[in-house]
């Protein structure tokens, strides 16, 4: 029956040629679109493509016009790299860039440590005030950034934070402010990872005589590695491109790259500003690529196999 139906359909698609022969047209069978097969729906593809264009087209235009041989970013006048050279030799811009990298690196390390410890404490222990602490952890995620900046400025003014400290101590107030709004993001990511952790592994390790420190180092931290990398990447990018909180907490002699770019944009948008912004975008992309490379399944599997082999050799 199925063969006859197929032959009937083939004969229906046949066409007689001039010599009396039948030439069969090749039927193209298309699999029907499933209810949840959104990737094959044309309207959804168009919508996703439009969103991607709207999000990334300004970044592409900024990077292209950073090579524009003109002081104004209105008309393309030719290709040049002189504005990258000018940005490299701009001492104030280079100093602001160095400050941003130092602040982002230090605040990322502190945010990952504090965020991971807070997430583990809220996941494992029961103590008075746990619900209040859990709710307070969400405040930096939901309150407006301008309120966070003003609150940190008032806080440093009330405690009498010293002004005029030498570098890098002059970055202390900005680092503290960045850690304050970054570590809750790390805690949220780590708690999401802990939700899938099997406590039986900890119990098995205790039965085999492992201490709490060995359980944390050998079992819990390897399980949390993807969340820690993701949280570190999130904290780094949040700190690197933050403007509002930094603007309110920076001292009179401390300038970061976003604040410096803002001061340059107030006069005119030159290719030098685009060059500095392009470098900032490229650093973010490189950090993201490095994090993805570190989280490759085959690389993690190789590390796990090496660890098992080492443990077997010690045994």
Please explain how this structure is put together.
The protein has 315 residues and is mostly helical. The chain folds into two domains: 28-65, no CATH class; 86-303, MetI-like (MetI-like fold). Helix content is 70%, strand content 2%. The chain is built from 14 helices and two strands; from the N terminus they run H-E-E-H-H-H-H-H-H-H-H-H-H-H-H-H. The chain has helices at residues 2-12, 42-65, 82-89, 91-124, 130-137, 139-142, 145-159, 172-194, 199-207, 212-240, 244-249, 257-265, 271-294, 297-314, and strands at residues 14-16, 22-24. The protein has a two-stranded antiparallel sheet with strand order 1-2. 22% of the residues are buried. Residues 1-14 and 304-312 have low confidence and may be disordered.
How does the SSE layout of this entry go?
Blueprint: H1 2-12, E1 14-16, E2 22-24, H2 42-65, H3 82-89, H4 91-124, H5 130-137, H6 139-142, H7 145-159, H8 172-194, H9 199-207, H10 212-240, H11 244-249, H12 257-265, H13 271-294, H14 297-314
Antiparallel strand pairs: 1-2
Provide a short characterization of the protein structure.
This protein is an all-alpha fold. The chain has helices spanning 2-12, 42-65, 82-89, 91-124, 130-137, 139-142, 145-159, 172-194, 199-207, 212-240, 244-249, 257-265, 271-294, 297-314, and strands at 14-16, 22-24.
Q: What is the count of structural domains? A: 2
CATH superfamily of the largest domain: MetI-like
**Mean pLDDT rating:** 77
- Helix proportion of residues, in percent? over 70%
